[in-house]
Specification:
Layout: E1 4-8, E2 15-21, H1 31-42, H2 50-53, E3 58-62, E4 64-65, E5 68-69, E6 74-79, H3 111-118, H4 124-130, H5 135-149, E7 155-160, H6 164-172, E8 179-186, H7 202-211, E9 216-221, H8 232-235, E10 253-254, E11 257-258, E12 263-269, E13 280-282, E14 289-291, H9 302-325, H10 330-334
Antiparallel strand pairs: 1-2, 2-6, 3-6, 4-5, 7-8, 8-12, 9-12, 10-11, 13-14
The structure holds ligand EPS.
């Protein structure tokens, strides 16, 4: 792996942090572009109260000097404005007050498996990290690497269909909605990824990265599951003498490698599990039936998820790009 990053931070903690390693030197970073991506992630029809509190902006604390990357690890920070309201609940130091534990686990969330796995008795210790708040930092990392990919003509965009009437109806009924989004990368050079080993296949890496976005239950490339229902003559993209294609059913990937056509990824997002009208569940403290926990939530975060999808695709592509073209400096890569 040429490029890697870690994120840290809780949903209502002080901030989110990322350390990115493997950023080549000499690339101009426009912080404004990263902030625009963060704003896009916060928007979208169906978002809840938290997005009215937050105003996500990135702080770059290392690895960039006078606007240019130096090759050193990059540190990114996004402050949680809501921290002001959670200082006691989320205090790192022990507190004198008795904090009420959350014990009524939400179906569909990380709550139950998380407390069992880590031997915890307060769901807050799971939900703070499993919250999709963490995806704000992934968007910052993705937008950061887009500053590099753009230098090579690569663009990434996404789309999704939002049914605003259905979202309004779900909100009235205390329910939530998911949906489908599509991410498209254009101008990707031929030969990213490889056919020679299972873990070097670009489609496999993309599937893992997109599936890692909270609430994603299915990922497909090109025609996706339709390939199962069509004959080969209707699936494979005929090759012109200049190597172009009239169709792109393969979604830009053949044999685990980019083939020069746009990379087209689709994902299905499940409805957010925090329901205003909660489902039946169990209270892990009493062992008795209890409705699931509710504080507040989005009704639909599909548009946000599609922005996160752009970021995750950018992250996979920069890694594959650095593997193929070398990764110490812009000059080396351009050569
Ligand atoms: C999110 C912040 C969270 C949720 C949402 C995503 O804020 P809070 O928990 O304070 O309302 O709005 O998280 C979830 C969907 C989830 O299931 O945890 C964000 O910044 O995107």
């Amino acid at each position: 792996m040429q490029f890697r990053f870690l994120t840290a931070g809780e949903s209502h903690g002080k901030c989110l942090t990322a350390i990115i390693e493997g950023v080549p030197a000499g690339f101009n970073i426009d912080v404004g572009n990263i902030n625009k991506a963060l704003v896009r992630r916060q928007e979208g029809y169906g978002r809840g109260g938290r997005m009215k509190i937050e105003k996500d902006r990135v702080i770059i604390n290392s690895g960039v000097r006078h606007g240019y990357t130096t090759g050193a690890p990059v540190t990114l920070v996004i402050e949680n404005k809501d921290w002001e309201n959670w200082k006691t609940t989320m205090s790192v130091e022990p507190v004198d007050t008795e904090e009420k534990k959350i014990t009524n686990v939400r179906p569909g969330h990380a709550d139950l498996a998380g407390i069992i796995k880590y031997g915890l008795d307060d769901v807050r210790d799971v939900l703070e990290r499993s919250s999709a708040r963490e995806t704000a930092m992934r968007v910052a990392v993705g937008a950061f690497v887009m500053e590099i990919l753009r230098e090579f003509g690569i663009s990434i965009e996404s789309k999704c269909e939002i049914d605003t009437t259905a979202i309004d109806k779900a909100r009235e009924e205390g329910d939530t909605l998911g949906g489908m989004f599509e991410v498209i990368a254009k101008n990707v050079p031929v030969g990213l990824g490889s056919h020679v080993h299972w873990d070097r296949r670009l489609d496999g890496k993309i599937a893992q990265a997109i599936m890692s976005i909270p609430a994603i239950k299915s990922v497909s490339i090109g025609l996706g599951e339709d390939v199962a229902r069509l004959p080969g003559s209707k699936v494979h993209d005929e090759i012109n003498i200049d190597y172009t294609r009239k169709t792109n059913n393969a979604g830009g990937i053949e044999g685990g490698m980019s083939n020069g056509m746009p990379i087209v990824v689709k994902a299905a997002m499940k409805p957010i599990p925090t329901l205003k009208k909660p489902l039946k569940s169990v209270d892990i403290a009493t062992g008795k039936e209890h409705i699931a926990h509710y504080e507040r939530s989005d009704v639909c975060a599909l548009e946000a998820a599609s922005v996160v999808g752009e970021a995750m695709l950018a992250i996979v592509l920069i890694d594959a790009f650095l593997e193929k073209f070398g990764g110490d400096s812009k000059r080396e890569m351009k050569k």
